[in-house]
Amino acid sequence: MSKPEEKKKGKRMKTAETKKHDRGYYAAVSILALFFVSYITISVVTNRTSYASSTSIEPQTIEPVQMGYQANMLEIPDPVALVEQRNQVVHKEELVVEVEDLEYLTEYQNNPDIPQGTIQVVQNGQVGKQEIVTKKVYENDELIEEVQIGNKVTQSALNKVVMIGTGPYRKVTEAKVGDTVYVTSTMLSIYLEPNEQSQKIITVYKNAEMKVIKKSGDWCYVAYTHYSGWTLKECLTTIVPGTPVQEEDEAPSGTSKGISREIKLNKKSGLTLTEFKKVLSNNSQDKDRVIQNNAEYFFYAEKQYNVNGIFIASVAVHESNWGTSAIAKKKKNLFGYGAYDRDPSGSAYTFSNYSESIDLLGRVFAKYYVNPPGTPIYDNQKASGKYYNGPTLAGVNKRYASDKNWHNGVFKWMQYFYNRI
Question: What digits encode the pLDDT tens for the residues 121-147?
Answer without folding.
Answer: 888 899 999 998 988 999 988 888 877
